Amino acid sequence: MPPNLRVTLNICRGMSIQLRCREKRIAAEDSPHIRDLFHQKYRGSRYSFGYPACPNLEDQTKLFALLKPEENVGVRLTSGFLLEPEQSTSAIVVHHPGAKYFVV
Asked: Which DSSP category does 67 fall into?
């Protein structure tokens, strides 16, 4: 993974943690054990297009229609449904207790 992408993903992760800790105060519900975090023993989920929980990149058009990032932050959607500038990212953050990546 290119270093630029690692930085972008870590910034997103940091923003998610900040939202959980300061804004929603729900991090206290997380398991205190690191191993449990790998099994999603925490409240909420962060979904990004192109990953298994949201594999269809074309669905970003719905997010763009709702949030209008072209106008607000200058992020564009390519014909292949990728974000420009290249290191841009989008996510849907859900803090409902029932939000999980996969429930089988």
From this structure: H
Q: Identify the sign of the CA torsion 48, 51, 52, 54.
A: positive
What does the alpha-carbon distance between residue 71 and residue 12 come to, in Å, rounded to a whole number? 21
DSSP, res 22: I
Alpha helices by DSSP H, listed for 1-100, are 3-18, 34-37, 60-67, 69-72
Q: What is the pTM (predicted TM-score) of this model?
A: 0.63
Q: Given pLDDT bands bounded at 50, 70 and 90, which one contains residue 104?
A: very low
**Positive or negative torsion for Cα 12, 17, 18, 24:** positive
- Tell me the HSE value of 87 on the side-chain side, using a 13 A CA sphere: 12
Structural domains of the chain, count: 1
Q: Domain holding 51: CATH number? A: 3.10.196.10
